[in-house]
Amino acid sequence: LRVVQALAAAGYTQDILISESGSRPIDFLAGNAAAWVNQEEGENPTFSVARAGQLLTAIAAANENPNRFGQDDLNLLREIKLNYDPSAGVYGEATSDNILDQVWAMIGLAANNAAVPEEAAAWLESAQAEDGSWNDGFGSTLDTTPLGLLALLSAGTHDAGSEPIQAALAFTLSNQQPLGGWQNEWDRTTN
């Protein structure tokens, strides 16, 4: 995922990195997409909204078709939308204690110019902690809060001056290390 995104960010096509067998980074993702989004490596394979959203960001970066991706012609936009509860504004299994399905669905949809319901953004805003952070279920607020920021901003429902964005920025700033990075409790180094 990150290589595909990095190539796009640097203005390169996927053709800049071709393996000896003729595969590009996006080709690897296409060949493994169904197994990865369905978490086939686990004991209980199930569709992951968060993984589908992450993959959608790479699909957008590589200018691939999000409606027919990979060997199985996955329609990841449709799959994410099927895992949305409009009455609650929630994607997948998102809870206020773990927003990863919500943020990655919103980011993936927005990256592919698909609409993000206002109710989804409202739910994400309501899941924000009093200190301005969001959680991923593992206490990784310093990793997850920037995703919450990106999801709200990419949905087009909040601007940089809005209260939830400012609260998240204040949380992030209050946790910045002296050298400019951030460090979760379990990290040994600042990132």
What does this structure look like?
There is one protein chain. This protein is an all-alpha fold. It is 47% helix and 2% strand. It has eight helices and two strands, in the order ααααββαααα. It has helices spanning 2-9, 25-37, 49-61, 76-82, 100-111, 118-127, 141-155, 163-174; strands at residues 84-85, 90-91. Strands 1-2 form a two-stranded antiparallel ribbon. A hairpin with a 4-residue loop joins strand 1 and strand 2 (90-91). Helix 2 runs antiparallel to helix 3 and helix 5 runs parallel beside helix 7. The radius of gyration is 17 Å and the shape is globular.
User: Helical segment tally?
Assistant: 8
**Main structural class:** mainly alpha
Strand neighbour order, sheet with most strands: 1-2
- Give me the strand/helix succession: HHHHEEHHHH
- Biggest sheet overview: 2 strands, antiparallel
Percent helix range: 40-55%
Low-confidence segments, given as residue ranges, are: none
Q: How many strand segments?
A: 2
Report, as a whole number of angstroms, the end-to-end distance: 19 Å
Overall body shape: globular
Record the SSE blueprint.
Blueprint: H1 2-9, H2 25-37, H3 49-61, H4 76-82, E1 84-85, E2 90-91, H5 100-111, H6 118-127, H7 141-155, H8 163-174
Antiparallel strand pairs: 1-2
Helix pairs in contact: 1-3, 2-3, 3-4, 3-5, 5-7, 6-7, 7-8
Distinctive features:
191 residues, mainly alpha, two-stranded antiparallel sheet, 8 helices, 2% strand
Question: What's a quick, concise take on this entry?
Answer:
This protein has 191 residues and is mainly α.
